[in-house]
Amino acid sequence: MDFSLTPEQRQIQALARTFAREVVVPAAAGYDQSAAFPHPIVSEARKLGFTHLIAPEAYGGVGLGPLEVVLVAEELAWGCAGIAATILLNNLVAEPLLIAGTKEQKQKYLALLRESPGAYALTEPHAGSDAGAIATRANKTADGWLLSGRKTWISHAPEAAFLVVFAKTGPEAAHKGISAFLVERGRKGLEVSKKLPKMGQRASSAAEVVLDEVELPADSLLGNEGDGFRIAMKVFDRSRPMVAAFAVGVSQRALDEAVHYATQREAFGQPIHQFQGVGFKLAEMGMRTQAARLLTREAAWKAQQGQPNTLEAAYAKAYAADTAMWATTEAVQVFGGYGYSTEYPVEKLMRDAKVLQIYEGTSEIQRTIMVRELVRDKRW
Ligand SMILES: Cc1cc2nc3c(=O)[nH]c(=O)nc-3n(C[C@H](O)[C@H](O)[C@H](O)COP(=O)(O)OP(=O)(O)OC[C@H]3O[C@@H](n4cnc5c(N)ncnc54)[C@H](O)[C@@H]3O)c2cc1C
How far is the CA of 364 from the centre of ligand 1 (A)? Predict the structure, then answer.
């Protein structure tokens, strides 16, 4: 088994690492405080191709795959998970187009993603984990669709040039009655309401979206009618390794900060890492971070090979997110009272980690997927 990266993969990883250290880290605390969208950083990232990594070169993208995305995601999230999410979310929005878009849709919307953010709108006030229960409705008209409903927690809705919106076109068919639509900003009846205040990843925006009888042309349907749920789940198989990689980056940063602090801080006449109670925390953080990284890369590698990866993506997402939450909490503990101070970096890591257990499917939902896949596997 060959764990090494190709020269091209090492190159993009190094580019992201340098960008994280030189551009992201110096700006991270400021955006965490202001919760402003980091436009200047996203512009710089765009020049390096990070906002459109997976779109094929024919559509103006870099033409890379899920494995390169996780390499970049880990490095950027090491610098700041909120900024990493802001830069890389466009890759999530590109996925449904790559999975189900016509040539014309890809040409138009992947070009838009090259210049501005897009958004992925599945969640509703009364339907998050239970995506099949969404109530947004698209009714067929003589020349298109009429879309009405309400979405919430939609990342980058305030800045997005368009949204991929999931809506019921045939509610009687449950999951099979969901379809996906491309909804451009500026359409009458589309309103992005409150920007939601957040605990962490504050450089990444999220908002509510109201759709009040939005008229859409027929060609705004993405894929076939009734394909929406299948598209959404396929997207998750590819995007969950990216979120897992954010978590690995956050865990690695927590470990690096904790190791550095534990070699500098003295108590009872010696550096605190020499106390087994502290040293073993560092060892455990290193071990779990590396395990999360390997799960993440395997899940991404399978997607890159075109192999089914639903189980591996769920393993990676849940394990890496849970590890990030645990490792950042341990890092705060290693820092003692200073860990609790906003003047040190580790409390932000802890706040940034929490949502990794929630978005793109909660840690509980990942476990329900694991059970389903394990039972289906029939190895027993
Ligand atoms: C910062 C942020 C950004 C987001 N960005 C987006 C976005 O861009 N687009 C988008 O569509 N959505 C987005 N979301 C929404 C996110 O995906 C949902 O919040 C998430 O899927 C959980 O749904 P919920 O909040 O409705 O919680 P619920 O589904 O109500 O879950 C509440 C609790 O019940 C548990 N639970 C529910 N069902 C089960 C079950 N079957 N078994 C065990 N436990 C269960 C959950 O794990 C959770 O602990 C974002 C959320 C946040 C916080």
Answer: 10
**Residue 172's pLDDT is what?**
67
Q: Can you give the pLDDT at residue 379? A: 67
Average pLDDT, the chain: 96
Residue 62 CB coordination number (10 Å): 17
Superfamily of domain 119-226: Butyryl-CoA Dehydrogenase, subunit A, domain 2 (2.40.110.10)
Instruction: Kindly give the parts of the chain with pLDDT less than 50.
Output: none
**Cβ(129) – ligand 1 distance below 6 Å:** yes
Which of the listed residues 362, 369, 370, 371 should we mutate to test ligand 1's pocket, taking the one with most ligand atoms within 8 A of CB? 362
Atom of ligand 1 nearest to the CA of 362: 47
Q: Which residues are catalytic?
A: 360
Nearest CA-CA partner of 203 in 77, 5, 21, 32: 32
Residue 171 confidence (pLDDT): 67
154 lines ligand 1 (CB under 6 A): yes
* Token duo for residue 186: 């500026």
State phi, psi for 125 to the nearest 5 degrees: -55, -35
Are the C-beta atoms of residues 289 and 281 closer than 8 Å to each other?
Answer: no
CATH 2.60.120.10 corresponds to the domain 7-115: no
Residues 203-240 pLDDT 10s:
999 999 999 999 999 999 999 999 999 999 999 999 99
pLDDT in tens, 26-37: 999 999 999 999
Fold for domain 229-377?
Answer: Butyryl-CoA Dehydrogenase, subunit A; domain 3 (1.20.140)
* pTM score of the predicted model: 0.97
In a 13 Å sphere around the CA of 184, the CA atoms on its Cβ side amount to 12
What pLDDT, on a 0 to 100 scale, did the predictor assign at position 194?
A: 79
**182: phi then psi, degrees, rounded to nearest 5:** -100, 115
Given ligand 1 and candidates 124, 129, 198, which is best to mutate, with the most ligand atoms within 8 Å of its CB?
A: 129
CA dihedral 258, 263, 266, 267 (to 10 degrees): 60
Assess whether the C-beta atom of 365 lies below 6 angstroms from ligand 1: yes
Question: Whose alpha carbon is nearest atom 25 of ligand 1?
Answer: 128
Please list the residue range(s) of the chain that carry CATH number 2.40.110.10: 119-226
Please report the atom of ligand 1 found closest to the CA of residue 363: 47
Q: CATH 1.20.140.10 residue ranges in the chain?
A: 229-377
